[in-house]
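The protein record minuted underneath.
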Amino acid sequence: MISIRKIRRKISKHWLSNFRKIVGFYRVKRCISGKTGLEIGGPSEVFSATGSIPVYPIAASVDGCNFSTNTVWENVITEGNNYKYGDSLLGYQHIKDATDLSGIESEKYDFVLASHSLEHIANPLKALSEWLRVLKKGGVLLLLLPDKNYTFDHNRPYTTFAHLLEDYQQGTTEHDMTHLEEILSLHDLSMDPPAGNPDQFKKRSLDNYTNRCLHQHVFDLNLLEEVFKYFKLKIILKKAVWPLHLVIMGRKT
């Protein structure tokens, strides 16, 4: 007699297989298998062996980059060969701001990954210019961002490309709090329990440079496509994927 646990495991495995087909993982696999990469803001469950886009098991190696030695998501981390992105997989952990990867040589990596990181950055185009600097010609950039319609950002307007470009041209820094009033008034706290009550959320938000919890910008696939075209990236994959991911991958030409 088949146990309930085995049935659930079989259903889960079938669902994940179908989900990976929907995402277009075969395209990702073709670009990343056996390659070396850098992940900004990880590690991320979505890229794990059991995740919907299991990059970690197929890559030759993955290094990591986080902005601080103490983050909300990873707690205390240190620079060195200790970036644990799989059960027994270790890469190099960089401690660098996403907008300044100084010290990492240009065109070092075959791919760059970021899951739910770009929206936290006040100057996304500056960050992307750095991520692309360390990416080899012919390499790929794979980004996952939240679909606002299914998150606490659902009341907020989409950011425009003109606004991102203005931030880039004016050299907006990560101290920027331009969007604070909008965030405090439109953030749906009922969908974000860790943020606490309004007073706790405001206190955390005012300390954003230290914690980087704010979603500085709100993206949709059209905005991401504009961004990729600005950097002359050839778009290989662009999808909105349940439950809340926007997925886009492009090749550096």
